[in-house]
Each structure stands twice: as C-alpha cells, then as structure tokens.
Write a structure and sequence with these properties.
Blueprint: H1 3-6, H2 14-22, H3 29-34, E1 43-46, H4 53-60, E2 64-69, H5 72-87, H6 90-97, E3 99-103, H7 106-109, E4 117-120, H8 135-144, H9 150-160, E5 164-170, E6 184-187, E7 191-197
Parallel strand pairs: 1-2, 1-4, 2-3, 4-5
Antiparallel strand pairs: 5-7, 6-7
Helix pairs in contact: 5-6
Length: 199
C-alpha cells in the first residue's frame, strides 16, 4: 500500500465532519485570521492545499476558496475527496461548489487570480520534542517533502493579495526567515496565524 492510499481525504466523517457540525462558526481562529465577518465573504486562495481541511472550513462558512496543490499525488487524493463529498449532496455539495481546485505551483498561479486573502500553510519545521508527529502528517511529509520555497511563496502572496495574507505556523516556531513582521497574530493551542494586512 502506498502513502497516498493510507491518507484519508474525508470531508464528511471524522474530524472534518465533526468540526462542520459542532465547530465555532466564524469565531474560530482560522475564520478570524482570514477576515470572515457577518457581512463579508472574501475570495480566498489556499496556496498550499494539502488535504483541503482549512479550505473546506472556510468554504463551509460562506467563503469562495480556490485551492492550489502542486504535488500530483496530493492533488489527485484531494480531488477524489472533493468528489466524494459532492456526491453526498445537501450541505456538502453546497460547500464543495464554493471550492475550486487547481493543479500547479502557487507562485505562478497566484498573480493570475487577484485574491483578496491568501492562506499559506507550508510544511512546518521538524519538531525536536519527544512527542511524535501524527502519522498522517509523517505520510504527507514523505509525499511532498520540505517546502524550501516557503519564503518565495510568501513574497508572491504579499504582492498579490489585496486584503491580507495568513501564514499558519507552529506556535513556538521561529518566524519564517526573511519575511516582514506580521500585523498581528492569532494564537491557538499548538499553532498560530500570522496575519499580514495589506495597506
């Protein structure tokens, strides 16, 4: 069994489905970081789509989200997950209708999209603590490898986003080297959102 088959891109059951049914709505940290408000549904680009969970959350709250994934295996797995969710019908189909999946390098695609908000969740630095990284994340890391161009992607995002850029980063990790200080941060239990407001 290869790595992709061990991954589950499931938007209906598991933690994603539970979050949809019992989450905190627009009061959740990601929604706040992305600038979702009662009267505002910005056009968001998830430039590092992965398994699409953050994009699905944002779309479930009303935002139109374009997902970009450059790894062929991850893109195929994500595409299958989106199709399965759409086939469920009802609210799942409505959410998937607000999601557009693209294949390619976000550094090339972002300048063509004119996004209001860009979300970047690059492969995080390896942990040095004893706690073992979740098996799922270890599998993803073996598929996509390190995001050595995260700084370059951030630079492109900061040039193209019209409203804000959101960097999802480990809570206690050093800032991404070579990038300006964020406008503010939203702190979670294990991760933080560095928010860069465009002026």
């Amino acid at each position: 069994m290869n790595n992709v088959q061990q991954l589950i891109c499931d938007f209906v059951g598991g933690p994603v489905g539970h979050r949809l049914r019992h989450g905190g709505g627009r009061g959740q940290a990601l929604a706040k970081a992305a600038g979702l408000k009662s009267d505002r549904n910005p056009f968001i680009v998830d430039a590092t789509a992965g398994l699409g969970r953050d994009a699905f959350l944002l779309a479930s709250l009303g935002a139109k989200v374009t997902l970009i994934e450059r790894n062929k295996e991850m893109h195929a797995h994500l595409q299958e997950g989106l199709l399965r969710a759409k086939d469920q019908g009802g609210i799942y189909s409505e959410i998937i209708e607000r999601m557009t999946l693209l294949f390619g390098d976000a550094k090339d695609i972002l300048p063509t999209l004119n996004p209001e908000v860009v979300l970047i969740d690059p492969m995080h630095p390896p942990r040095h603590k004893s706690a073992l990284v979740k098996k799922e994340m270890r599998i993803i890391r073996t598929i996509v490898g390190p995001d050595n161009d995260a700084k370059e992607l951030m630079e492109v995002a900061l040039k193209t986003a019209t409203s804000r850029v959101v960097l999802k980063w480990p809570l206690r990790a050093d800032p991404l080297e070579g990038i300006q200080k964020p406008s503010y941060q939203i702190i979670g239990k294990s991760i933080r959102y560095d928010v860069f407001i465009q002026t």
